[in-house]
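Sorry, explain these tokens?

***
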Amino acid sequence: MKVLAAWAALIATTSISLALDGEGFGRGVGFSSCSLYAKRYAEDPKMADFVFFTWAQGYMTAANVALAAAGNRYHDLSGSIDDQEAHVRRYCNSHPTASYNDAVLDLYASLPLKARSP
């Protein structure tokens, strides 16, 4: 229970305090640095992936909604979640000063683009 409370506090403080360039572009754990994600992953891999990748899934789903509305296309998110999380980890390990959002965008761009059925 203490671990869950600590993670809840991390999420709350990260969500409240992080914004891109102070302009309100985005909020949440996705705008944390890759190095912070790596630190949280080293502490508790399952919880880090749950917290961070839940944000990533929502972000990619929202991007798909916008993409489909603009042109009836979307990136296929149906692949292995384990593989997708591993892609993000590799990106973050190679780019520790990047944001977690950058890692998610790299993953999103790598996913197959499909036409949406009418």
